[in-house]
Write a structure and sequence with these properties.
single chain, Immunoglobulin-like, 3 domains, five-stranded mixed β-sheet, 1 helix, about 5% helix
Length: about 290
C-alpha cells in the first residue's frame, strides 16, 4: 500500500509539474494482452512502475533500452498506468485486454425438475481467460443436456463475457448431465429429472381383512410412463350412508395400498394431488 501511495503521488506531481513536457518518453504498444509478453520503449534513465488492477510491476531501465515484461507476468486485464521516476517523472495510461477463453464458470437451475416441462432448465456461463479475466469479446459456448439416450445441444455466442440458454426437461426421468464448454474447458452440472404428476390413476379391490376392505392402485406412472417416486401420497376416499372417510397412503414400490371400513354400499374414489382416478362400488357381501 505504501508503494502504491508513493506512485500515486508521483503521478499527481507529473500532472501538475511544469517540466512534464521534458518527461521521459514511453513507447507503449497499441494493444496489450493479459499473460503475453510486453516490450516498452523508453528514453532517459529511471524506474518504471506498471500499476494495474491488484498488481504492480517494477523495472529499472537505462537510456535507449526497452523494458521487457515476461510472458505470464502481466496477468490482469483493464486500465493500467505506466509511471516513470528518474531523470524526470511521467505517466501514461494503457489498456490490457483479456486473453483467449480458457476457463468457464457455469450455473444451472434448478437442481430438480419434473419431466417434459418447456423452458424448465436454465444455464448461465461466464467466460474467462487463464488468469480469470472476464473475456468480453464474443466467444461460442456449447451447452449440452443429456439424460438416458436423450441429448439436446445448443451453441450460444457470449455477450460481454456471458452466455445463457434455456431448455425443456426431457420426457425421461433420471439424472441429467448439463455441460457448458468453451474451447478445451468444460463444466458439468447435474439436474435431477423426476416424474411428473400421476396420469391415468387406477385402483382395484385387492381383498378383505376382517371388517376391512383392501384397495390398491395399479403401478402409478406419469403421462410419459415414468414411475412416480415412492413416498408420493395417494388419497383413498370412501363414501357411504355414514358419511366420508379417507386414508392417505404413500406409494411404495410403485403402488399405494389402503384399508377401508367394510360397508353394505359404498363408493371408493382415489386421487393424488389434483389428479383423480377411477371409482369402485363395493358392498358388504360382494
Amino acid at each position: 500500500m505504501r508503494k502504491l501511495f508513493l506512485i500515486s503521488l508521483m503521478v499527481a506531481a507529473c500532472w501538475f509539474a511544469a517540466d512534464c513536457a521534458q518527461a521521459v518518453e514511453l513507447r507503449l504498444p497499441a494493444q496489450a494482452i493479459a499473460g503475453q509478453p510486453l516490450s516498452i520503449g523508453t528514453s532517459g534513465n529511471g524506474t518504471l512502475y506498471l500499476v494495474g488492477p491488484g498488481q504492480i510491476i517494477q523495472r529499472e531501465f537505462k537510456s535507449g533500452s526497452n523494458v521487457e515484461i515476461r510472458s505470464g507476468e502481466l496477468r490482469k486485464a483493464g486500465r493500467w498506468i505506466a509511471v516513470v521516476h528518474g531523470d524526470s517523472n511521467s505517466s501514461q495510461v494503457f489498456w490490457v485486454k483479456p486473453g483467449k477463453p480458457e476457463n468457464i464458470s457455469f450455473l444451472a437451475r434448478p437442481s430438480r425438475v419434473t419431466v417434459a416441462q418447456p423452458n424448465a432448465i436454465s444455464g448461465v456461463a461466464f467466460v474467462f481467460d487463464q488468469y480469470q479475466n472476464l473475456v468480453l469479446d464474443p466467444a461460442p459456448v456449447d451447452f449440452k443436456l443429456s439424460v438416458g439416450g436423450s441429448v439436446s445441444s445448443k451453441t450460444v455466442t457470449s455477450h460481454h463475457g456471458v452466455a445463457w440458454t434455456t431448455s425443456a426437461s426431457a420426457p425421461k426421468a433420471g439424472v441429467a448431465q448439463f455441460i457448458a464448454s468453451v474451447g478445451e474447458a468444460s463444466v458439468n452440472r447435474v439436474v435431477q429429472q423426476v416424474a411428473a404428476d400421476p396420469c391415468n390413476l387406477r385402483m382395484h379391490l385387492a381383498g378383505r381383512d376382517k371388517d376391512m376392505i383392501v384397495v390398491q392402485t395399479d403401478p402409478v406412472r406419469d403421462c410419459s410412463g415414468n414411475p412416480v417416486p415412492d413416498g408420493t401420497i395417494v388419497t383413498f376416499i370412501q363414501t357411504d350412508k355414514n358419511g366420508k372417510s379417507s386414508v392417505d397412503a404413500r406409494i411404495k414400490k410403485g403402488i399405494a395400498r389402503a384399508q377401508l371400513p367394510s360397508s353394505d354400499n359404498a363408493t371408493v374414489s382415489v386421487a393424488s394431488g389434483v389428479v383423480l382416478g377411477n371409482e369402485l362400488h363395493v358392498g358388504g357381501g360382494s
